[in-house]
Amino acid sequence: MNSTVDIPLTKVFVDNKYLGLEAGVTEAYWYGITSIPARQFLCHVMLYNGSNWYGLPLVALSTKPIHLGNVSESQAYDCFSYDITCIRFTFLRDQRATILSSHGTYLFTVISHDDNGRGPFAEFPEQAKTFTFIGLDDGRIVFRHTVDVENTQPSVDMIDNMLGQAIKLYETWFNEISSIALTNKTAQEVFDELDKTSEIKEGEEA
């Protein structure tokens, strides 16, 4: 059971009123998060001077040196569980996203598990909801259930096109390698032949 987990290191600005300092913000790095049922997420940061602060609310953090949000905007739901997993999906990393008409960039995902270690935290598949954290363009950091998040880049059509091109390229090279390999040539001879083939094709295209 992991109630406290690492998150992808994120540069943030902490509202000084949560640090007991004068008005303004302090630069920091956000590196951990804690989940306690029926409470807000607790965020753990290191300030620029090396001091660690534990248990800050999400509303205390922003990606720009300004604070515009409130608790209900930053965290619309209480935590579900004492057991969580944090992951930044490679495919979603730095993708643009929209939450309730607000635009921002994907940060990471938190998945809550039940008492038996199962996750996402739900009794039925249709209830499964993970938490997606987004850094909004105005600096606020918020999260919502994944069903409330719309990724806007890249488009599905562009992804399909990229995959189609990759598959076509792979099939072309696979066929060339197979035909050359059937001549019982050495590996070096195969690669030399492929280089020659590529040069010929480039010359034809030119």
Could you characterize what this model shows?
The chain is α+β, with helices and mostly antiparallel strands. The protein has two domains: 4-151, no CATH class; 156-205. The protein is built from three helices and eleven strands, in the order βββββαββββββαα. Strands 6, 7, 8, 9, 10 and 11 form a six-stranded antiparallel β-sheet that branches. The chain has a five-stranded antiparallel β-sheet with strand order 4-3-2-1-5, with no helix packed on it. The longest helix is centred in the last third of the chain and has 26 residues, at 156-181. The chain is elongated and about 75 Å long. The mean pLDDT is 78.
Q: How confident is the prediction overall: mean pLDDT?
A: 78
Cα separation of the termini: 60 Å
Low-confidence stretches: none
Structural domain count: 2
Number of helices: 3
Largest sheet: 6 strands, antiparallel
H-E string? EEEEEHEEEEEEHH
The general outline is elongated
Helical content stands at: 10-25%
Structural class: alpha+beta
Radius of gyration, in Å, reads 24 Å
Topology:
Layout: E1 4-15, E2 25-34, E3 42-47, E4 52-57, E5 61-62, H1 71-74, E6 83-87, E7 96-99, E8 102-113, E9 131-136, E10 141-145, E11 149-151, H2 156-181, H3 187-205
Antiparallel strand pairs: 1-2, 1-5, 2-3, 3-4, 6-8, 7-8, 7-11, 8-9, 9-10
Helix pairs in contact: 2-3
Task: Report a brief summary of the structure.
The protein is an alpha+beta fold and 206 residues long. The chain has helices spanning 71-74, 156-181, 187-205, and strands at residues 4-15, 25-34, 42-47, 52-57, 61-62, 83-87, 96-99, 102-113, 131-136, 141-145, 149-151.
